[in-house]
Amino acid sequence: MSESVAKKLCTEGHIEYLGESKANITGAHGEKIIKEVNW
Predict the structure, then answer these.
(1) pLDDT digits (tens, 9 = 90+) for 1-39
(2) Residue 17: which domain range?
(3) Closest CA to 18 of 28, 9, 27
(4) What pTM does this model have?
(5) Are 22 and 35 in contact (CB under 8 A)?
(6) Which of 12, 24, 26, 35 is the Cys-Cys partner for 16 at CB 3.0 to 4.6 Å?
(7) How many domains does the chain have?
């Protein structure tokens, strides 16, 4: 996933962009997931 795509998802409220390798993801049931990611 590219950084621009990640930031687009952030603006849609699904992922909070935390930097190069982390994202705070809101799951399908509203659970908060902090995940290491490779954009």
Answers:
(1) 566 776 665 555 556 666 665 666 666 556 666 666 665
(2) 3-36
(3) 9
(4) 0.23
(5) yes
(6) 24
(7) 1
Could you list the beta-strand ranges (E) of 1-39.
15-17, 22-26, 32-36
Cα(25)–Cα(39) distance, rounded to whole angstroms? 14
Amino acid identity, position 31:
E
Q: Which two tokens stand for residue 10?
A: 């952030």
Of 25, 29, 31, 22, nearest to 12 by C-alpha is 25
Residue 7: what residue type?
Answer: K
Question: Could you give the CA distance from residue 32 to residue 25 in angstroms, rounded to a whole number?
Answer: 6
